[in-house]
Fold this sequence. Notes:
This protein has ten helices and 13 strands. By secondary structure, the protein is of the alpha/beta class. It folds into two domains: about 1-120 and about 245-270, Rossmann fold (3-Layer(aba) Sandwich); about 125-245 and about 280-300, Dihydrodipicolinate Reductase, domain 2. The protein has a seven-stranded mixed sheet. The longest helix has 20 residues, at about 275-295. The protein starts with a strand and ends with a strand.
Amino acid sequence: MLRFGLFGTGHWATQTHAAAIDAHPDAELAGVWGRNPDRAAELARRHGVPVFTEVDALLDACDAVAVALPPDVQADIAVRAATAGRHLLLDKPLALDLAGADRVVAAAGSSGVASVVFFTQRFHPNVTGFLAATAATGGWQHARATMFASIFQPGNPYGGSQWRRDRGALWDIGPHALSIIVPVLGRVSRVAAADGPSGLVHLLLTHDGGATSTVSLTLDAPPEAVTRDFVFFGENGVTQAPPGDGSPVTALATAIDQLVEEVDAGTRDHHCDVRFGREVVAVLAAAETARAEARTVELAP
C-alpha cells in the first residue's frame, strides 16, 4: 500500500487526484496540503484524512506525493519530496523553465525515487496501444496536431487559473501534444514558432532522423471551433490517433498502477518519468525563445 500525500486543492486535485487515490486498492490518501488552508481542510474532511499546514510534515507522513499545483510550485515541492525519498506522481508540465525541471530530475536521480508524470492521454490503454503500434510500423515523415480548447467560458473550472492565463496553451496543452507526437517521431531537435489570433501558437518541429511535425494550440478558441486532432503521415499512408477511451480518473488510476509497479520492482525507467517531463519542458522553453526572437532554436542533444 503506497501512502500518498496530496498537494493541491483545486478542481484537478479534488476531482481527479483525490478521487483516483481514494478508490485505488494499492493506494491510501495520507493527507492534504494546500496553499488555501480552508480548501485544504475541506478536502481532507471530505476524505476523512488529516490536513497539513507544513509541507515537510506531510512528507513525513507519506511514501509518495501526488501534486496538482501550478508547475513552478510543483517543481519546488517535487525537489523537496524526492530529497526526502518520496516517490513522485506529478502533473504536466514538470516545471515552467528548464532550470526547474533539471532540479527535479537531479533530485529524483540522486535519491533513486520512482517517478511518473501524468500526461493524461498516455495512460489510456487505447492511446498507448495506438502509439506502440504506430511507432513499431515506422516510416513516418510528418505529424499534424491541432488542439483548440476554450477554457475561458463561464463555468469552466480551469478558466481562473493564473498560470494558464500567463503561459497559455503552449505550456498547458502543448505537453499533451508532445506526449503523443514524440513517442512516434522521436526526440525534437529543432523548434520554430509563431503566434496567431485568440492565443494561438503554432510550432514547427524537426525530430531526430528528419521527420517533422506541426502543432497548433489555443486555450481561447471560439466554442464552435473546439477540436482535437492528431494525424501521422508516412510511407504506409495516413493514420489518426484516437481520443482516450476513459476518464481522467481511470487514467490516473493507471498511472498509480504503474508507479506502484516501479516502486515494487525497483525499476526507474518509466516512459513518462521526470526525464521525459524534462524533455518536454526543453521543447516548450525552446518554443518560447523561438517566438520571442523569431528564429529557429536548436535543442542540445
